[in-house]
Amino acid sequence: MSTQLTQIKTDLTSITLDVLEAAHLQAGDLFVLGCSTSEVVGGQIGQSSSQETGAVIIETLLAILKPRQIQLAVQGCEHINRSLVVEKTVAQQRQFEIVSVVPAMHAGGACSVAAFDQFEQPVEVEHIVAQAGIDIGDTAIGMHVKFVQVPVRPTLQTLGAAHVTALRSRPKYVGGPRAIYDTDQMV
User: Fold this and answer.
1) How far apart are CA 97 and CA 185, in angstroms?
2) Count of structural domains, the chain
3) Residue 144's Cα: distance from chain center in Å?
4) Over the stretch 16-45, which tens digit does the pLDDT of each residue have?
5) Minimal CB count within 10 Å: which of 12, 76, 98, 166?
6) Range of the domain at 87
7) What is the CATH number of the domain that holds 79?
C-alpha cells in the first residue's frame, strides 16, 4: 500500500473514531458515508475518481464498524440520485425500497463501487435514515441522517485533500418552557 493510502487509512480511522465517540452509536445503528475520492486525491468532485482510494476507504470503515455491529450505507453521487449501497439484510430489516442500479465509477463513484465489491449482499436503496455519518469532500449527506442533525467536528477536518464534515443525530426537543429534558438519554 502506498504511503498516501496508508495515511488515508490512518486519518480516516481517527476521524471515524471521533464521530463514533460523539454519536454514541449502538449495535444495529446505521452510519452513512458520502465521499468524493476525486476530492481526496486533490481533484475536483466527479473528475478524478480513484478506485484504489475508494477501496481503502470502504475497507477501513468496515474494519471499524463491523465489530461494533454498526451498519454502513454508502451514498452515491447525483448521477444515481444519491442512492446508497447497503447490505440486503439491512434493506429488508428496515423495509428500505431496493432500486435497480449498479454503481459505476462515474455514476455512483469509487466508494459506491468499492462497497458493492466488499459488501456480502449489496443492494441499492433510494432513502435511509442513519444515526450518524461522515461527509468527505462536501457530498451532502444530510438528507440521509435522522432529524435532528448535529454537526460533529472531528479532530482531523481533511482526508487527503478533501474537506471532512460529520453529523450525528439526537431526539427532537418538544414542549415549551416547562418541559424537562433528560439530556443523558439524548447523547
Assistant:
1) 31
2) 1
3) 9
4) 999 999 999 999 999 999 999 999 999 988
5) 98
6) 3-139+156-166
7) 3.40.50.10360
